Structures are given as C-alpha cells and as structure tokens.
Amino acid sequence: MPQDRRLLRITAALAATPADARGLAEWAAWAGLSSRSMSRLFRSETGCSFGQWRQQFLLSIALERLAQGEAVNAVSDALGHATTSNFIAMFKRHFGASPARYFRN
C-alpha cells in the first residue's frame, strides 16, 4: 500500500467501493493531484502503475471473498465486472484456473 496521504485516500475509497470505475485522471483530480503526479507517486511507492496496482488489489479482494464462500457472480458484481464470464476469464488469466477449480485444488 502507498504511504502518501492522497494515495491512501484513493486506496481507502477503492477498498470501500471496489466497483468504482473512475480512471486515473478522475481519481487524481478527486485527491487533489495531477494525473502525472499520481502516476509517479504510485510507481515510486508501490513499484507498479495505478492500473497494475488496482488490478492486483481487486484480485486480492476477489480471492478473499471467494475463499469465504461468496458466490462467483456476487464477487463479480461487487468488483464491477460487466458479466460473470468476464470476471472468470480475468481470474483464469491471472491464476491459471477458474475460481471453482482454483479453490477445489
């Protein structure tokens, strides 16, 4: 997690509402940063771009919810995916298996 107070404000908002689809420019303006400053800060504090960080963050939320037994379609909706099949495809790309197979193994 980043340490900068403005980035922490963004990450806290995303934790509270993971389906929030605002892009980098919108988040930056909301936190009182320029897009360029936000990009630089995210990279320097987390080692990855905002987009990469966000994707990893959402995947960690997905893993946690699925491990607690939440239904795949509920997790998909909570994370803002247009369809459950899109979520399953993204999950499979990152973990090499569908959510059901991942947790079965």
Q: How would you characterize the overall build of this protein?
A:
With 105 residues, the protein is an all-alpha fold. It has a single domain (5-104), classed as Arc Repressor Mutant, subunit A, CATH 1.10.10.60. The chain is 71% helix and 0% strand. It has seven helices and no strands. The longest helix is centred in the middle third of the chain and has 18 residues, at 50-67. The chain is elongated. The chain starts with a helix and ends with a helix.
Task: Give the gist of this structure.
With 105 residues, the protein is an all-alpha fold. The protein contains seven helices and no strands. It has a single domain, classed as Arc Repressor Mutant, subunit A.
Helix residue percentage = over 70%
C-alpha Rg (nearest Å): 15 Å
User: Which CATH architecture would you pick?
Assistant: Orthogonal Bundle
The gross shape turns out to be elongated
Number of helical segments with 4 or more residues: 7
Helix and strand string, N-terminal first? HHHHHHH
Structural class: mainly alpha
